[in-house]
């Protein structure tokens, strides 16, 4: 009788003999006191504690490296006699060599160990992120080639560090881009602490490279702004032969110098973007170290990007892009000369004042549709999505901060002036557009894809999409080309009419916002900086103060537009 009661309660094997001799009033079995339970619980706790300790230690390592590098760069800015640019380059070169050693060890050693990569995060390293790494990395390599060529021409007044540093930078970019392209989805299961430290060291190095690039970009903008005065003084008498880094050097060939200078300044923003994109990918890899993904977390059907079910979004977005390119070209021609034209600033801000409300209205409508639809929220743990939300909110602070500074400067001076009123309207609309777009993207990223839940009313729609995919895979001959084009057009219009109005609206809005953010990324990236060139805020806050504000806000604003494109593409695909 006692043995049957013990078997019903499933006692521990080690405790059967002890249970048989126990009195009836103490027959309750406390599982939390069993050795087996305590042992398993302690193993789980030790695993979690080891993971937290590894993340803490690697984070402290990155923090100290960033503080050390920031102290060097800040000392170079404020006391360039004690700490020179060459000293900063030497420090960064040492860090890059250490990162290269770890990346090579990871590629040849860690990742090839048995059971090293048991899981891969399907959300990490999407194609647009890895494509951005390759694109911006290629431009950064070309930038360093220009720098090497320029320093080689002026070898008589240049140090060897100015040639060695970009050479190491080219090697670092190539190996890091290869590493991120092939291993950005890894959930490494071996050498956790060493991998975390290597990833954090690489993140810290990229952050310092970004910090240095931002300060040098500010110097180039300052050179361009002050160049107008030089051109006015020496117009038609002396060509521009000022060295890009030191004014004591003169080029033997003025044409080559101008090519290197213009190319260097044109490609420089891509270097800052490359550093930030690499940091985001490396951070996701750091979060995925030791992560175990269960089978139900892996999506069986991964949504693909198809221009399917959109008509008005591409048309409106393409129109905005074409008009933006025209405005940008006129701005570059008329605003970068020796005497900036007031009319070109009015034209530039007027374009923004028309475009930003359209983007805000689209984002608000998309958010309302998200609240009306019946898609479930995706509550699974996703480090990539968490990072996307943090980057969207953090990068938006750049444009929002500059807008508030502009609002204060305009209200305190003369808000009734035409140009000032346009800048004031632009600043207010930009704040509202950033907020509404962030809400729309973040809400869309937390929604399940539409096709994961097929309702009876959507069966015809899903069947139509499957037929379209099967049709796309067929090969057609040249003789059937006209007939096939007509079939494709009819099939496209037929599928468009069968989409639900919520899906159609979300796709139209997402595609429109993608194109708008692309043109708003292109304009400041390639040199349109009216916030510094209009002179209003610069005269109100002072040259140095406003330059520091712009230096902080512009790179974040450019990164925000690029990252918004990726988030909007995710919303479009899931819709």
From TrEMBL:
Tagged with keyword Transferase: no
Membrane topology: Multi-pass membrane protein
Record region (Disordered): 1-25
Main localization (coarse): membrane
The UniProt record lists the keyword Repeat: no
MF GO annotations: proton channel activity
Cellular component terms per the entry's GO annotation: plasma membrane
Residue intervals passing through the bilayer: 56-77, 89-108, 128-151, 163-181, 193-213, 265-286, 307-331, 351-369, 389-412, 418-441, 509-528, 540-560
Subcellular location per the Swiss-Prot or TrEMBL entry: Cell membrane
Keyword set, alphabetical order: Cell membrane, Hydrogen ion transport, Ion channel, Ion transport, Membrane, Transmembrane, Transmembrane helix, Transport
Biased composition, class Basic residues, residue ranges: 7-17
Family according to the record: Belongs to the otopetrin family.
UniProt name for this protein: OTOP3 protein
Naturally occurring in which organism (per UniProt): Balaeniceps rex
């Amino acid at each position: 009788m006692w043995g049957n009661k013990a078997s019903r309660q499933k006692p521990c094997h080690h405790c059967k003999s002890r249970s048989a001799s126990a009195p009836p009033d103490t027959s309750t079995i406390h599982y939390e006191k069993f050795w087996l339970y305590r042992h398993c619980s302690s193993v789980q706790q030790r695993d979690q504690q080891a993971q937290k300790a590894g993340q803490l230690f690697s984070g402290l390592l990155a923090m100290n490296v960033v503080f050390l590098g920031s102290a060097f760069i800040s000392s170079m800015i404020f006391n360039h006699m004690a700490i020179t640019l060459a000293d900063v380059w030497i420090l960064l070169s040492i860090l890059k060599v250490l990162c290269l050693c770890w990346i090579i060890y990871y590629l040849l050693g860690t990742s090839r160990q048995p059971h090293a990569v048991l899981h891969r995060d399907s959300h990490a390293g999407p194609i647009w992120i890895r494509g951005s790494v390759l694109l911006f990395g290629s431009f950064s390599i070309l930038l360093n080639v220009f720098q090497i060529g320029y320093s080689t021409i002026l070898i008589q007044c240049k140090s060897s560090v100015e040639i060695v540093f970009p050479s190491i930078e080219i090697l670092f970019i190539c190996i890091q881009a290869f590493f991120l392209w092939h291993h950005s989805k890894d959930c490494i299961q071996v050498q956790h602490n060493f991998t975390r430290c290597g990833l954090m060291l690489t993140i810290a190095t990229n952050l310092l490279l970004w910090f240095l690039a931002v300060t040098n970009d500010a110097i180039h903008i300052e050179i361009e702004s002050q160049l107008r005065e030089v051109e006015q003084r020496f117009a038609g008498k002396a060509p521009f032969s000022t060295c890009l880094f030191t004014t004591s050097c003169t080029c033997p060939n003025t044409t080559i110098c101008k090519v290197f200078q213009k190319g260097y300044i044109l490609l420089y923003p891509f270097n800052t973007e490359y550093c930030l994109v690499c940091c985001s990918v490396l951070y996701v890899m750091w979060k995925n170290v030791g992560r175990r993904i269960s089978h139900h977390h892996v999506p069986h059907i991964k949504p693909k990007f198809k221009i399917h079910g959109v008509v008005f979004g591409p048309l409106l977005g393409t129109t905005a892009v074409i008009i933006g390119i025209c405005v940008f070209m006129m701005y570059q021609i008329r605003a970068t000369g020796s005497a900036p034209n007031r009319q070109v600033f009015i034209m530039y801000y007027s374009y923004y004042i028309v475009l930003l409300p359209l983007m805000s209205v689209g984002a608000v409508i998309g958010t309302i549709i998200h609240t009306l639809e019946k898609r479930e929220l995706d509550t699974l743990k996703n480090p990539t999505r968490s990072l996307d939300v943090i980057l969207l909110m953090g990068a938006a602070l750049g444009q929002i901060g500059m807008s508030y500074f502009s609002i204060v400067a305009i209200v305190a001076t003369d808000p009734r002036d035409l140009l000032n009123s346009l800048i004031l309207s632009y600043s207010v609309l930009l704040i509202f557009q950033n907020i509404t777009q962030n809400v729309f993207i973040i809400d869309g990223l937390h929604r399940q894809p539409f096709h994961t839940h097929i309702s009876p009313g959507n069966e015809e729609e899903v069947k139509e999409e499957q037929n379209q995919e099967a049709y796309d895979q067929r090969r057609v001959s040249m003789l059937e080309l006209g007939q096939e084009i007509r079939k494709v057009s009819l099939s496209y219009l037929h599928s468009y009419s069968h989409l639900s109005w919520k899906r159609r609206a979300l796709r139209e809005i997402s595609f429109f916002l993608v194109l708008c953010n692309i043109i708003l990324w292109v304009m400041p990236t390639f040199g349109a900086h009216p916030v510094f060139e209009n002179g209003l805020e610069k005269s109100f806050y002072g040259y140095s103060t406003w330059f520091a504000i712009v230096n902080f806000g512009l790179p974040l604003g450019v990164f925000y537009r690029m990252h918004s494109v990726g988030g909007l593409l995710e919303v479009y695909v899931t819709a």
